[in-house]
Specification:
Length: about 350
């Protein structure tokens, strides 16, 4: 098979972006300033002011998903896969490299060639939490990756089975306080523990945490089957409609869940972290490749089928240029530090 070229004339995209004008910015994720939104095409020309073409050569692109099939990361990549293949003109090979709360996949990316032919899904605060708590032992530094773009985020939710006896956050908290340590809640590895500790600090509950390294796809059946009382993560917990939310992180109600309170509204302020999905490249990837990938992602986000897919979810869609993606990471990284007490 001949080598295909991913060739994006970013100067043209920049002109299109200018013609379209600025879109409305999404609500600010907790822990940082507002995530700036941009039109498709995002950043300035990767090829510079002379309008040169930014390109890279790949027989195919390997896309690492560091969690198990069916979870939030898998859902994000699959929503965008076809449109990204159209935008790049090449095939995307999806590989699941799960384990170590995501560290196996992100280490694989850290050791990949910085040529634009290997990218990875990334999740915040997961990657920050791993990097901040494990240090050098985790094998990578979250700050060293090149951030292409974040595409969506959601509040974190407490999700329970549809037939659960705990149909409100008050039910859950009261039962936990009456039976310290008896109720259980699942989350994605050490990141889930971070989110649970934020809830425990705010509510003064005692519950048993059940870490699941593989991701949300492995958590949902545990909760739906009654093996675990609840779970905590983003809206990907609602995939398949087996779980329902009983509380949201952050300070603002979500229009799709008008009857589901935030922890603050329920009287427990301080639960503010959100979960965000995006794409990253290996450390030291040339900036023109980062810009080219960002342009491809922004083009994919404008695809009609992609927009229809997002319309069926409750995720808040982000449109960022590469500089905004880096700033977003830094803001959320600092928010994670604060939650960890660092």
């Amino acid at each position: 098979m001949g080598i295909r070229r991913l060739s994006l004339v970013v100067a043209v995209l920049a002109l299109l972006a200018a013609a379209c004008g600025a879109q409305e910015e999404p609500s600010s994720p907790a822990g940082g300033s507002e995530a700036a939104a941009t039109d498709a095409g995002g950043s300035e020309a990767a090829g510079g002011e002379d309008g040169a073409t930014a390109s890279l050569e790949c027989q195919a692109v390997d896309v690492i998903i560091p969690y198990s099939p069916g979870g939030g990361s898998d859902q994000q990549v699959r929503r965008l896969q076809s449109a990204l293949e159209d935008a790049t003109g090449t095939r995307l090979n999806i590989t699941y490299q799960e384990g170590g709360d995501g560290s196996v996949g992100w280490n694989a990316l850290a050791n990949a060639a910085p040529d634009g032919c290997t990218i990875s899904n990334v999740v915040l605060p997961n990657i920050s939490n791993l990097s901040l708590t494990a240090g050098e032992e985790v094998g990578f530094n979250a700050e060293d990756f090149e951030y292409i773009a974040f595409t969506e985020y959601s509040p974190n939710i407490i999700g329970v089975g549809k037939d659960s006896e705990y149909q409100t956050i008050e039910d859950f908290i009261n039962a936990a306080k009456e039976n310290p340590g008896k109720l259980s809640i699942a989350g994605v590895g050490s990141n889930g523990e971070l989110l649970v500790n934020e809830v425990l600090t705010a509510t003064d509950m005692e519950i048993t945490y059940v870490p699941v390294s593989g991701g949300v796809g492995d958590i949902i059946p545990q909760v739906a089957g009654g093996h675990v009382d609840a779970a905590i993560s983003g809206f990907s917990l609602l995939d398949g409609e087996q779980l329902i939310p009983i509380a949201l992180s952050g300070t603002e109600l979500h229009e799709d869940f008008p009857d589901v309170p935030t922890f603050e509204e329920a009287g427990y302020p301080g639960v503010n972290l959100v979960t965000t999905w995006g794409f990253i490249l290996p450390p030291e990837t040339p900036q023109e490749i980062v810009e080219a990938w960002n342009a491809a992602v922004q083009k994919a986000l404008q695809d009609e089928k992609v927009q229809e897919a997002y319309a069926e979810t409750s995720f808040i869609v982000l449109e960022q240029d590469a500089a905004e993606a880096r700033s977003y990471f830094e803001e959320q990284h600092e928010a994670t530090k604060t939650t960890l007490g660092q």
